[in-house]
Specification:
The complex is a heterotrimer.
Chain A (H helix, E strand, L loop, with lengths): L12 E7 L2 E4 L1 H14 L2 E6 L4 E3 L17 E4 L2 E10 L12 E8 L6 E5 L12 E6 L10 E6 L1
Chain B lengths: L7 E8 L11 H16 L8 E5 L10 H9 L5 E5 L5 H14 L5 E9 L5 H6 L18 H10 L1 H21 L14 H7 L2 E3 L2 E2 L8 E10 H7 L4 E9 L16 H13 L4 H4 L2 E3 L5 H11 L6 H7 L16 H4 L3 H17 L13 E8 L3 E8 L8
Parallel strand pairs in B: 2-3, 2-4, 9-10
Antiparallel strand pairs in B: 1-7, 1-8, 4-7, 5-6, 8-11, 10-11
Helix pairs in contact in B: 1-2, 3-14, 5-6, 6-7, 6-11, 9-11, 11-12
Chain C lengths: L8 H6 L1 H4 L9 E9 L4 E8 L2 E7 L8 E6 H9 L4 H7 L2 E5 L1 H6 L1 H4 L9 H6 L1 H4 L10 E8 L4 E8 L2 E5 L8 E6 H8 L5 H6 L4 E4 L1 H7 L21 E4 L2 E7 L1 H12 L3 E5 L6 E2 L5 E2 L4 E2 L2 E5 L3 E9 L16 E8 L8 E4 L13 E6 L10 E6 L2
Parallel strand pairs in C: 1-4, 6-9
Antiparallel strand pairs in C: 1-2, 2-3, 4-5, 6-7, 7-8, 9-10, 13-14, 13-17, 15-16, 18-19, 18-21, 19-20, 21-22
Classes of the chains: A mainly beta, B alpha/beta, C alpha+beta.
Chain lengths: 154, 397, 385
């Protein structure tokens, strides 16, 4: 039988699925961060003296100068500033909220690095860069960054 | 040969311990540990590194761009970074790529990172998803097969083949017991041969649990520099002489009535031919082989060393693959001892280079190691074969 | 043998050699006498000299040593285990020392690792009913046999049924699973000194019967904690478990599409290389060896000749469903009739033929009744009689 690559009569689409169980370890430093969020409602960072930077979430070694940071913990404020944001307008099963919701980069006071989190308690159209927000902690723990449930305007 | 723009030396090697679990570290921290050891070994800082290569198994930890996340600990901040993920050969491909990048003149100093945290993922599931999704994925159940055991028992007799495979396995365990970084160190003795070859649980046919490789966590990091830089920065760089990568079609069609030439054999034949190596067993002082099971390790010795008939089994039986033999195989303990998959194929040239430097530790070969061979393996028969040298005095062919 | 706090006096002297630290006694030259009264007591003389140790079991009262310790058995064991305060025992006179007391304070801590109570396999097995967790045993109906050899060994059967647990000190014939090992290996496993997978892989543990049941049985019991031992509190390390799940769609293209539609008609199609003439099964557009595009499909099979056989005992989970495949099952490599000799085709064997299959045999495909043009259309191959 001669093959006709132009003839698409036999072409079809087969469906597949990949679902694999995984487990990730936060490590000693990451665990201390999550446990502080969960048990004390505190946001912890680490300071690199050499680079004069406070990192949050904390890391064991400075990514720039490789200084060891896991002894230089600093307690940060539960309040911070929206550095940037986006409004999530679609729904998918892996997303933490129903659309529309605000996903913002928030720099808490005392930190040099912002991290992404959800902003609630405000109309999605009213969020602004530079807006002051404060942390609201979750009632039930998931042992993740979502033990900090969301931020809301001060 | 003849295409090498400039020579490339290995100037730093860092390895974490290999283990079944590392709950105390996240992936970034484990990578960082390997990076720190390598920089320390090379006695340089991140400022000296021009480019970072990152490699692990796609799907094993199910992180889409691990190189991005790991840049928090890999030292890639502000530098060029490339990711390489070629399955089981990843670690060897990283070394080939680093060599190519430096030899070409693109970068002077390149750091390559191979890592895996198998505890965090699902290895068999990951491997299954690497088969072609239209047909073979539905048949494949991971990386286990006893076809080699079957063929070896057919060729050499059941008793001799089983005994030789178990001798190979126990030899590897003896080497691993010397290596402080090795993951599995059972303390097996040769008088356990009969017991183990008959009672170790069968996985597939005569491939038994004891024959098979481990699943490990760990990172291996190597630093490469141009000849000029290597001589300037390092007392005893180990030189990369040549390497070859050979692939076969990614299907399960290798076991017909006529067997095609194995990729390992093809790789060895081509590599030795173009480097004028007539007798690899005589020439090389150590061979670090990617041996996913004891059966494969023994069978592949024949392919990689271009041996005929039962020469490889005789060499094993005569103790010539032992640490004090003619051609020691896997002083590290090999893959049956430690298998952090994305790093596994890098452990081979890493150990070979340390053997050449003479600072491998308790598993150091006693006689001088000048010429080393290292192999990588992946997929449904992909081979990487690499030659390392102590001195820059080899003859161009 | 009389025991105090789960430990006999003898145990302490018998373990001295393994607890001895030569590097801590390089400049030491002392003899220590022990006169232990009461049940299980006795007389011992310990000589420590320049990194060497000699322990002697004496017939009568020991005197004439650098220091001689006199105590009753319960006090001596209690102090050694840290259950009785040593200072108080001295003060109260329940321990008396003749000679140089400083020897005991200065030398002993450097000469020996602390004594840890010897755990017996029987104590672990005998506590199994107390450690049983009925809430984890819903619907579980298994008999776990233990066959422990060597010192302190024995045979037991643990019966778990209707959320109850009963221990019998015989090994029943109808156990779901029997675990055989040296008693010491069993003790080490239960104390976390030996990893289960390591012990099993290295052949220290042999499992007869249902390996899966052996794995599951550990969740039915609380961890064994030796009497008097304090379980160490590890630091809390956070982990996140998740199942990343992705739906996928793959285009067959014309060749694999024809292959699947061929299965519907009980036909195998191969692509034929115009250069080397080999057949590619399932069909591939390019012959990777000649690096040319194939332009012809040929029908091969449906019967085939077996070249290699893999009998799989390892129960691997299907990553798509999470279901464990029934074992053993058999994977065949075979050359389909009319296919080129170096191109094998892989598929499963009908389980009924597992004992009869041999290389060189002819096999035929068994098809699904309802075929839709998918991989499910081909069930397996079986011996063509």
């Amino acid at each position: 039988m001669e093959i006709s690559y132009e003839n698409t009569k036999n072409c079809k689409v087969m469906t597949g699925k990949m679902a694999l169980p995984n487990q990730y370890f936060a490590g000693r430093v990451g665990s201390k961060f999550i446990i502080a969020l969960r048990d004390e409602n505190k946001i912890l960072g680490v300071r690199c003296e050499k680079c004069d930077k406070v990192f949050v979430p904390p890391r064991e070694y400075c990514e720039k100068c490789l200084s060891k940071l896991d002894e230089s913990w600093v307690e940060l404020s539960n309040e911070g500033v929206v550095m940037n944001y986006t409004v999530v307008n679609y729904n998918d099963k892996h997303l933490p909220r129903r659309a529309p919701y605000i996903l913002a980069l928030i720099k808490v006071d005392g930190a040099d690095t912002p991290f992404p989190h959800i902003v609630e308690g405000i109309d999605v159209g009213d969020v602004k860069v530079g807006m002051k927000v404060k942390a609201v902690f979750a009632g039930e723990t998931t042992n993740t960054i979502r033990d900090l449930d969301h931020f809301e305007p001060v | 040969m003849g295409k090498r723009n400039r020579n490339v030396g290995i100037i730093g090697i860092g390895q974490t311990e290999y283990s079944s679990h590392k709950e105390h570290q996240n992936q970034v921290e484990m990578v960082n540990e390997g990076v720190r050891y390598a920089l320390e070994d090379a006695n340089i800082t991140l400022d000296d590194i021009d480019c970072v290569l990152h490699g692990n198994m796609e799907l094993f930890e199910m992180v889409h761009q691990p190189d991005m996340w790991h840049s928090l600990g890999s030292g890639a901040y502000g530098k060029d970074q490339l990711r390489i993920t070629t399955g089981g050969t990843t670690g060897a491909s990283l070394v080939c790529a680093a060599d190519n990048l430096v030899a070409s003149g693109m970068y002077d100093v390149v750091m390559a990172i191979g890592m895996e945290k198998l505890q965090e993922g699902h290895t068999t599931g990951g491997i299954t998803n690497m088969a072609d999704p239209l047909w073979f994925r539905h048949l494949q159940t991971g990386a286990l097969t006893a076809t080699t055991a079957t063929m070896m028992m057919e060729e050499f007799g059941e008793e001799r083949a089983k005994r030789a495979a178990m001798k190979y396995r126990i030899m590897m365990d003896k080497h691993a017991c010397l290596n402080p970084r090795a993951h599995r160190r059972f303390g097996l003795e040769y008088d356990q041969t009969d017991d183990l070859m008959n009672t170790s649980p069968q996985l597939v046919g005569e491939l038994r649990l004891i024959h098979m490789c481990s699943q490990s966590d760990g990172a291996c990091v190597m630093i490469f520099a141009s000849e000029e830089k290597a001589k300037e920065m390092c007392k005893n760089p180990v030189w990369i002489r040549d390497h070859i990568t050979v692939h076969r079609e990614e299907t399960f069609n290798n076991f017909g009535i006529e067997m095609p030439e194995m990729t390992h054999h093809y790789a060895a034949r081509k590599l030795f031919e173009r480097n004028g190596i007539k007798n690899p067993v005589e020439y090389f002082d150590v061979f670090e082989m990617y041996d996913p099971s004891a059966w494969w390790g023994l069978d592949w010795a024949r392919e990689f060393l271009l041996l005929k008939d039962d020469e490889h089994i005789k060499l094993l039986e005569d103790g010539e693959f032992d640490l004090d033999g003619k051609l020691p195989i896997n002083p590290s303990g090999g893959v049956t001892a430690s298998n952090p998959i994305g790093a596994t194929a890098m452990l081979r040239p890493a150990e070979a280079a340390m053997q050449i430097r003479g600072d491998a530790g308790p598993q150091q070969i006693k006689k001088e190691v000048r010429h080393a061979l290292a192999s990588g393996f992946g997929g449904t028969l992909w081979s990487v074969l690499m030659m390392l040298e102590k001195d820059l005095d080899w003859q161009e062919v | 043998m009389a025991q105090y706090f789960g430990t006999a006096v003898e145990d302490i002297f018998n373990t001295m050699e393994e607890r001895f630290l030569p590097e801590g006694t390089v400049d030491v030259d002392v003899t220590i006498g022990y006169n232990i009264s009461g049940e299980g007591g006795g007389h011992w003389k310990v000589t420590i000299k320049e990194g060497t140790l000699k322990t002697e079991d004496m017939d009568g009262e020991v005197t004439d040593c650098t220091a001689v310790l006199n105590a009753n058995a319960e006090t001596f064991v209690g102090v050694t285990l840290g259950k009785i305060d040593a200072g108080e025992a001295f003060s109260s006179g329940s321990i008396k020392v003749d000679g140089d007391l400083t020897v005991l304070i200065a030398v002993l801590p450097k000469a020996f690792r602390p004594f840890k109570p010897v755990v017996k396999a029987s104590s672990i097995v005998e506590s199994v009913e107390e450690r049983f967790r009925p809430e984890k045993a819903e619907g579980v109906d298994i008999k776990i046999g233990y066959d422990l050899s060597g010192d302190g060994g024995g045979q037991w059967t643990v019966v778990v049924k209707d959320q109850t647990c009963a221990l019998k000190d015989v090994l029943d014939d109808d156990c779901t699973v029997v675990m055989r090992m040296e008693a010491q290996v069993f003790v080490d496993l239960n104390q976390g000194k030996l990893d289960g997978a390591t012990a099993f892989t290295s052949g220290q543990v042999k499992i007869d019967g249902d390996i899966g049941a052996a794995g599951k049985s550990s969740s039915l019991f609380e961890k064994y904690v030796a009497e008097g031992a304090v379980e160490e509190q590890g630091e809390e390390l956070i982990s996140l478990k998740c199942v990343p799940s992705i739906n996928q769609r793959y285009a067959t293209g014309p060749l694999m599409g024809t292959w699947f539609n061929g299965l519907k008609e009980k036909k195998f199609y191969a692509a034929k290389c115009p250069e080397c003439g080999r057949t590619l099964v399932p069909p591939r557009e390019i012959c990777a060896q000649c690096r040319v595009r194939c332009n012809e499909l040929v029908e091969v099979g449906p019967d085939a000749m077996v070249t290699l056989i893999d009998v799989v005992y390892y129960a691997s989970p299907d990553p798509l469903t999470g279901k464990i495949r029934e074992t053993p099952y058999t994977a065949l490599f075979m050359v389909l009739d009319g296919a080129s000799r170096d191109e094998s085709f892989a598929h499963d064997l009908n389980p009924r033929d597992i004992d009869r299959i041999k290389p060189g045999m002819k096999v035929r495909p068994v098809w699904s009744e309802k075929r839709t043009g998918s991989y499910k259309d081909l069930l397996y191959f079986e011996i063509a009689d």
